[in-house]
């Protein structure tokens, strides 16, 4: 049974609303900064899986709106990025990229070892390594046919999708607890900066948004998307490929820092809630995107490879958590920015860029803004990682 686009989007809104209400009323979820969309999204996944288990009926959702929401949300991050903060992110960006590269190698060696233990072709383990975990569903779909045709691993697609499914769920739930552990263990002080890049702080008094605040925000986001997609098309014409959300992120940064200051100051003076309107729309886009991503998971695809994938992913998740707490936090500066980046690192290594930002947003709503983290992590996730991961995978396959 296929649910059409309109009803799918309506269900996503209902699930996100439910997740927000539950999170507001369950202290444990807020304590460990569990992203609000995860609550509703996973509930839908479990219900759909139960229906399949008891009746054999597969329920699918048309999620075409999901990709647009991702672009909208990254445009919002760019529009709130001050170039001064971006310039200070150069060294942390290089360090985080190096840490991610080292971990991708660990992921692949772990996958090879686990596949060998189960009597499989060792290279099948790459499908539960950096291909499906760091690379995500796009990288999985790109490499699975190559593994099947060139290497004779016929179930490569199933392994990759299963790995991505479990990894995405795990990434959604480990970021917040890791952040809470690091802050308590190392006595890291919260920033208490309520000017969040995405969303609104739990402690911040709600601003008085009006019609013009939201309308200005929507106009700015739409202009950003137009410029971002144009940049993406120009890059594609040159022979290079980068995710569209990276182009929209860069377009937002350009607009935020190159538009004459007088224009922005005038808008802010007339409608001082514009920044809050931008944060609100971006937060909605992120929440609905992640909710729809979780709605689209089909856990029955794990059938037949569950034992191997479960064991391999258990090791990968533990490895990611230990590496984040011991290595990433230390090398990123052992401060609050490092805590927020650590919360997002599971999204880099197990889920997706959106998952990383959702985890970081949940932590920032609880403890305060971390502006540099919201620039460094998306650039590492969305641009550099895909390029390096392709080189690493090719080296392991050859």
Automatic annotation (TrEMBL):
HAMAP family for the chain: GltS
Name of the gene this protein is made from: gltS
Chain's role: Catalyzes the sodium-dependent transport of glutamate.
InterPro entries assigned to the protein according to its UniProt record, in alphabetical order: GltS (IPR004445)
Its membrane topology: Multi-pass membrane protein
Organism annotation: Pseudochelatococcus lubricantis
Keyword entries, A-Z: Amino-acid transport, Cell inner membrane, Cell membrane, Ion transport, Membrane, Sodium, Sodium transport, Symport, Transmembrane, Transmembrane helix, Transport
Protein name, UniProt field: Sodium/glutamate symporter
Subcellular localization, as worded in the UniProt entry: Cell inner membrane
Chief localisation class: membrane
Transmembrane segments: 38-56, 68-87, 93-114, 126-147, 159-182, 211-231, 237-259, 280-300, 306-331, 338-361, 373-397
Family as reported in the entry's similarity comment: Belongs to the glutamate:Na(+) symporter (ESS) (TC 2.A.27) family.
């Amino acid at each position: 049974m296929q649910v059409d686009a309109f009803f799918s989007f309506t269900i996503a809104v209902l699930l996100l609303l439910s997740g927000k209400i539950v999170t507001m009323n369950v202290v444990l979820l807020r304590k460990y900064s569990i992203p609000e969309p995860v609550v509703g999204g996973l509930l839908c996944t479990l219900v759909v899986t139960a229906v399949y288990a008891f009746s054999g009926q597969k329920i699918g959702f048309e999620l075409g709106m999901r990709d647009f929401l991702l672009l909208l949300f990254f445009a919002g991050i760019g529009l709130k990025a001050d170039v001064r903060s971006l310039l200070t992110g150069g060294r942390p960006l290089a360090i985080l990229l190096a840490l991610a590269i080292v971990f991708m190698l660990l992921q692949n060696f772990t996958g090879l070892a686990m596949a060998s233990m189960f009597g499989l072709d060792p290279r099948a383990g790459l499908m539960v390594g950096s291909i499906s975990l760091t690379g995500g569903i796009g990288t999985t779909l790109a490499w699975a046919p190559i593994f099947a045709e060139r290497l004779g691993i016929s179930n490569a697609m199933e392994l990759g999708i299963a790995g991505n499914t479990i990894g995405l769920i795990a990434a959604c739930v480990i970021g917040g607890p890791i952040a809470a552990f690091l802050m308590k263990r190392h006595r890291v002080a919260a920033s208490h900066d309520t000017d969040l890049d995405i969303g609104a702080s739990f402690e911040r008094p709600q601003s008085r948004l009006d019609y013009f605040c939201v309308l200005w925000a929507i106009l700015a986001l739409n202009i950003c998307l137009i410029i971002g997609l144009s940049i993406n098309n120009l890059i594609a014409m040159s022979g290079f490929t980068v995710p569209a959300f990276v182009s929209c992120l860069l377009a937002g940064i350009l607009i935020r820092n190159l538009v004459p200051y007088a224009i922005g100051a005038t808008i802010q003076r007339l409608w001082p809630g514009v920044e809050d309107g931008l944060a609100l729309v971006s937060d909605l886009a992120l929440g609905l995107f992640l909710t729809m991503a979780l709605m689209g998971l089909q856990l029955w695809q794990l059938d037949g490879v569950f034992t191997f994938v479960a064991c391999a992913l258990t090791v990968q998740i533990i490895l990611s958590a230990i590496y984040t707490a011991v290595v990433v936090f230390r090398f990123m500066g052992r401060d609050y920015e490092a805590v927020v980046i650590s919360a997002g690192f599971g999204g880099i290594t197990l889920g997706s860029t959106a998952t990383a930002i959702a985890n970081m947003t949940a932590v920032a709503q609880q403890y305060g803004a971390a502006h540099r983290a919201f620039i460094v992590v998306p650039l590492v996730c969305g641009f550099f990682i895909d390029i390096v991961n392709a080189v690493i995978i090719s080296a392991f396959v050859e």
